């Protein structure tokens, strides 16, 4: 429900995708359509995992910007904030983001028992910020072959409301 509301609210956003912590601003009156937005769930304590992702499957710097511009693929580490807003944990992420520019900060207090709420907030935020055909959520301990993922999603472009993933049921 909130995803649908966020999707309709995105029409009022005039720009393309913000880079990292940038707000909703831009040069063009028409919003760009992206192919996919990949949100990589991470935690304050997961610096080594983020570095591993950066070293393997997430392009850095100009290569990441080129992927966004030419292929329409957005990739961001997704994290909220600590219980103490602006505390040492938040400052460490802000410093890392200044170096890499690859975070999407959520209005969400981080906590293991809050992972479902974090996922919901990620999707609502991503839909609000970027108009994309696909929204993807992975964890920072998963290594993705972006080329294969893009090919797989491209095969399903004409199908409405596609869900691809692991749907679990039961206790």
From TrEMBL:
Topology class, membrane: Single-pass type II membrane protein
Q: Name one Pfam family in it.
A: Galactosyl_T
Q: Output the Gene3D superfamilies linked to this UniProt entry.
A: 3.90.550.50
| Cofactor(s) needed for function | Mn(2+)
Pathway assigned in UniProt: Protein modification; protein glycosylation
A GO molecular function term, named singly, is: galactosyltransferase activity
Enzyme Commission no: 2.4.1.-
Checking PANTHER family in the record gives: BETA-1,3-GALACTOSYLTRANSFERASE 2-RELATED (PTHR11214:SF367), BETA-1,3-N-ACETYLGLUCOSAMINYLTRANSFERASE (PTHR11214)
Q: Can you tell me which family this protein belongs to?
A: Belongs to the glycosyltransferase 31 family.
Q: What is this protein called?
A: Hexosyltransferase
